[in-house]
């Protein structure tokens, strides 16, 4: 009996010891968890739970923590970013739109700058065109042994003396024939009046007098505007002489030192594009020179043949009209129309309708020969530009700078066409060159490999001592 009780006490003691160990291990685990959560491990379970709830509530309030929704709550998708909600086409249109606005602003600023310094730009353009006309003469004089300064001086002085003599001859002819032209214009107006009275329109004398009176009244009412226009005309004349003087200086320096000026200009081009621009420059100059020389030849042929026709038709001032035809030939399309119309009008008011029709036939015949034979043969493919580009260029140039802009427009379009074509080909050639360099050749030795030796050749290490 005593032994049975002892065994029972021993079993209860062992069970109590194991329970105490389990309780101590559970307390140690709970204390470690509370230390990880920032709760004092000396607190009781109830106090620890309360402290853990308060810590969670405080953390949620301080850090913006949001507890997860309950299991029965529906899933709500997050809203996309605003940029992702805009359709792709609208985003592309917006990107292109603001870039176009920036480009339009840049063009507007450039137009303002050009209009502000238009006199300088026009003078430089005129000097460039005159240089393109005179530079071959300088080159010929240099080839026969003259120095650069002497060749430039002879060409410059001779060219401008010839231009001055032509201008003086035109003014002299106009002044000499002004009285005769005035008398013939009055006779022509009287004949036109008689034709209107006796012709098919049956215009009365009172209607003609009324038209003349209205014209006189209009001149009287707009005398202020006409006076202002006359003052502006004087200003234009002063600007013309200033621009002519500046163009002369530009021509002189370009003839004498054009190559150095071009080399100095290349320094402002970025290094990556300098080679391409350096190659495009001579081609652009060749195009400009060919255009100016071809236009001068075509204009001279037009002026000679039309002037001869007007002379045989006994039209007054045939030679000045031929000079005007030569000058207006530098304005494509518009110049031919204006100069031809001027010749026909002079023939009409001086010699009547029959002479005017004959003059019109002469002008049209010469211009047709020019368009279909002279220009393709003389100008050739070097400066060939599509007629639409010519019309748009002349219109745009005349809107920007008047007659000088119309003169410069076509050579500018031709030079731009040449430069763009060359730069496109140059870029393609550079791309192909880089591709060829990047592609390994099939028979090329690899880097670091020993070069192949001919059969029977000794290796470098097997060579004997040098022979004396």
Can you describe this structure?
With 468 residues, this protein is mainly alpha-helical. The chain has 14 helices and no strands. The chain has helices at residues 2-37, 45-63, 82-85, 88-116, 118-143, 148-176, 178-198, 205-221, 223-266, 271-312, 318-328, 334-351, 353-378, 387-438. It starts with a helix and ends in a 30-residue tail after the last helix. The relative contact order is 0.06. Mean pLDDT is 74; it is low at 38-44, 59-63 and 447-468.
Compact overview of the structure:
With 468 residues, the chain is mainly alpha-helical. The protein contains 14 helices and no strands.
Strand fraction equals under 5%
How many strands appear in the DSSP assignment?
0
Query: What share of residues is helical?
Result: over 70%
Q: Determine the mean pLDDT.
A: 74
Structural class: mainly alpha
Report low-confidence residues grouped into runs of 5 or more: 38-44, 59-63, 447-468
What general outline do the C-alpha atoms trace? elongated
How many helical stretches? 14
Distance N terminus to C terminus?
126 Å
Compute the CA-based radius of gyration.
47 Å
In sequence order, what are the helices and strands, one letter per element? HHHHHHHHHHHHHH
How would a textbook summarize the main sheet? Answer: none
